[in-house]
């Protein structure tokens, strides 16, 4: 390894063509079979990878191969070295974080987009990439019954970003520059950003990058009595105090479906506050936004007409493979003014005609993928009716799980379920040593016991000082039997844990059940 082999010339002669169509056909078929087998077998694999940090360095050579290697050999190594280091997000037994719900249509769309491999930074660089994106984003906007002002047809518009983090950063930059234009560019130190203590850390990262002073980031506390939603009155108070102190309220982020507990911030009340203070309101519906295509969930978006921007991750719970975040804005000019550049080498007639969208001015990067193909494939292959059915089936599974938790008196629901995630814990038995830290050690131990079996994977959050387990249903391959198996596993592990509980009275208590 490392030095030139003696047969240097002949190895170059034998080199495969990097894109021979017949070779591509053969190898791509092999790969599709490999992936189909993976989907077939993924439920048998340990969900959470159990490898140790650095495991792969010991298994792979320490420099790249000089000579070409056949696909079969590479796939063998994928099986023996890569798969063990994968946490299987596509497993039907995956209930951690939020799902990453890929689908056949999402996969095929991704495949097509990778096949065309276009770099659609402006309209001219690939007109279909831009135009399809504007069309599908309007389609989804209509499915969500977003106000017309968010649609291209109503003077607003949307864009596909990679992630919510980027969507939040872009809108924050737009809001910042619009405000600074009004109050003077030297006032950036006075700008204040608002959220709740449940808001995703994406906002804090965006504020750091956008040059908001760390001390001007307000994480307004939430309480259990408001189900951990952001209180409009508390937001108003925070803004009043800042104005009185000579600061300038800039941007607030409301969340539909917070990451810890899927809390919903009340948009109507918050929108009235932000309007009164001239603050940009962004709605982050990364996970739960998808559910709002079902009429029974749409009411969570009431008040979105008062927002300036709205985003949702199609790669979370909308059957679209990573990455794909939909962002709508009422005032695309604000985004463009903040993010556009116009170098000579990109000048063209279409841009100058102002008849086209150049998406490079709606995002951070220049280069951009043809993500719209994935969404278009998903929307057309399943239709609104099936997408609603898929979402509802996950909500139904979560409800079933919630019912199981409620039926076992050792467990309790910590925060009421809203979508397809159940927040629960094993209640620390009265008088037991588990009570001293309010059940934290107990539930940590339960979670680790469950996850280390490899049969299911769940994660935790702490809300209102309570350590709880999050059970997020929504894997594309998950069926009811996986839900009941996960519940049985939890019960077994709880039996084992509480069996070690030394307190006599507690033992008696359990026996009573
Ligand atoms: C997942 C999530 C995010 C982060 O999404 P990325 O696409 O990874 O940036 C932001 N907000 C909420 C509410 C989320 O659930």
Automatic annotation (TrEMBL):
Gene Ontology CC terms: cytoplasm
Cofactor: pyridoxal 5'-phosphate
Residues with the N6-(pyridoxal phosphate)lysine modification: 316
Example GO biological process: carboxylic acid metabolic process
CDD domains per the UniProt record, alphabetical: DOPA_deC_like
InterPro entries: Aromatic_deC, PyrdxlP-dep_de-COase, PyrdxlP-dep_Trfase, PyrdxlP-dep_Trfase_major, PyrdxlP-dep_Trfase_small, Pyridoxal-P_BS
Pfam family name, one: Pyridoxal_deC
Name of the protein: Tyrosine decarboxylase
Native species: Amborella trichopoda
């Amino acid at each position: 390894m490392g030095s030139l082999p003696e047969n240097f010339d002949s190895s170059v002669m034998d080199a495969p063509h990097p894109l021979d169509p017949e070779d591509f056909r053969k190898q791509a078929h092999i790969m599709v079979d490999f992936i189909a087998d993976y989907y077939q077998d993924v439920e048998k694999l340990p969900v959470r990878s159990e490898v140790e940090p650095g495991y792969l360095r010991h298994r792979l050579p320490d420099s790249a191969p000089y000579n070409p290697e056949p696909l079969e050999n590479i796939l063998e190594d994928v099986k023996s070295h890569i798969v063990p280091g994968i946490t299987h997000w596509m497993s039907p037994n995956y209930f951690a974080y939020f799902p990453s719900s890929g689908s056949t249509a999402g996969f095929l769309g991704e495949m097509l987009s990778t096949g065309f491999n276009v770099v659609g930074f402006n309209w001219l660089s690939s007109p279909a990439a831009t135009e399809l994106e504007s069309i599908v984003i309007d389609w989804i906007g209509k499915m969500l019954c977003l106000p017309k002002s968010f649609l291209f047809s109503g003077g607003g518009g949307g864009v596909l970003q990679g992630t919510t983090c980027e969507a939040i950063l872009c809108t924050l930059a737009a809001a910042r520059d619009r405000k600074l234009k009004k109050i003077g560019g030297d006032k950036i130190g006075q700008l204040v950003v608002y959220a709740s203590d449940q808001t995703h850390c994406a906002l804090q990262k965006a504020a750091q990058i956008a040059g908001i002073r760390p001390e001007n980031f307000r994480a307004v506390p939430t309480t259990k009595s408001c189900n951990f939603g952001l209180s409009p009155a508390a937001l108003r108070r925070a803004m009043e105090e800042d104005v009185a102190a000579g600061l300038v309220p800039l941007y607030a982020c409301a969340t539909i479906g917070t990451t810890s507990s899927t809390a919903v911030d009340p948009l109507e009340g918050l929108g009235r506050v932000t309007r009164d203070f001239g603050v940009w309101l962004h709605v982050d519906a990364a996970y739960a936004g998808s559910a709002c295509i079902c009429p029974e969930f749409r009411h969570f978006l009431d008040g979105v007409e008062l927002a300036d921007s709205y985003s949702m991750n199609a790669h979370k719970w909308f059957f679209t493979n990573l990455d794909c975040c939909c962002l709508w804005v009422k005032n695309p000019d604000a985004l463009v003014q903040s993010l556009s550049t116009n170098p000579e080498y990109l000048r063209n007639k279409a841009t100058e005609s102002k008849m086209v969208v150049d998406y490079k001015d709606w995002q951070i990067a220049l280069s951009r993928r043809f993500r719209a193909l994935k969404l278009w494939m998903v929307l057309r292959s399943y239709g609104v009716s099936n997408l609603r059915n898929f979402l509802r089936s996950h909500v139904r599974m979560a409800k079933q799980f919630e019912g199981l938790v409620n039926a076992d008196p050792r467990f309790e629901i910590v925060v009421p379920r809203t979508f397809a995630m159940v927040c629960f814990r094993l209640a620390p038995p009265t008088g037991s040593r588990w009570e001293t830290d309010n059940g934290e050690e107990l539930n940590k131990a339960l979670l680790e016991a469950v996850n280390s079996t490899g049969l299911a994977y769940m994660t935790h959050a702490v809300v209102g000082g309570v350590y709880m387990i999050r059970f997020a249903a929504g894997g594309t391959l998950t069926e009811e039997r996986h839900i009941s198996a996960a519940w049985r596993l939890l019960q077994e592990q709880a039996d084992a844990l509480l069996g070690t509980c030394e307190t006599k009275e507690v033992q008696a208590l359990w026996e009573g059940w």
